[in-house]
Amino acid sequence: MRSLTPEDFSMARVLGIDPDWHSTACVMLIDGKLEAALELPVDPKLRGREAYEATIEAIVSSTDLEAGMLWADLVVIEGQEFYLHKAEANKSVQGLCYISGALFAMAAGIGVDRLMPKPKEWKSNLDKKEKQISICRQ
Questions:
Q1: pTM summary value
Q2: Which of 5, 64, 88, 111 has the smallest set of CB atoms within 10 Å of its CB?
Q3: How large is the greatest C-alpha to C-alpha distance in the chain, in angstroms?
Q4: Distances from the Cα of 70 to the Cαs of 32, 65, 85, in angstroms?
Q5: Strands 74-77 and 13-18, how do they pair?
Q6: pLDDT, tens only, 63-95
Q7: Distance (Å, rounded) from C-alpha 113 to C-alpha 74?
Q8: Burial 46-79 (b: 16+ CB within 10 A, else e)
Q9: Which of 34, 2, 40 is nearest to 135 (CA)?
Q10: Hey, how many other C-beta atoms are within 10 angstroms of the C-beta on 25?
């Protein structure tokens, strides 16, 4: 799989997906400009396997997400990364890997071009709050 490049975001239609346990976020960009956003929420009380299974169910049953993938020239799904020094955090990352994998398989089944960059590939080393501010300024 190739790496993410700035040119990827200037393509005509890009669907970006940030998988999470209880709320997967999707944005649709046309020529680098935000056109639409979609959230796939899941019951916040769910934990562990129940949470990621419910999230995957929400993903595969979303006709809006499927339509977004059919519409897109490129689907970018945030990949997951394990860290040796964060054993406890890695437990939750495993479930996110299942969610990212389900999204990647869905995009592959549709036949759209897809990328799955690791978080540091596009977020660099900024902490989450700094990166959110940076994204909003762009």
A1: 0.75
A2: 88
A3: 40
A4: 18, 9, 39
A5: parallel
A6: 888 898 899 998 988 888 776 666 565 567 778
A7: 5
A8: eeeeebbbbbbebbeebeebbebbeebebbbbbb
A9: 34
A10: 15
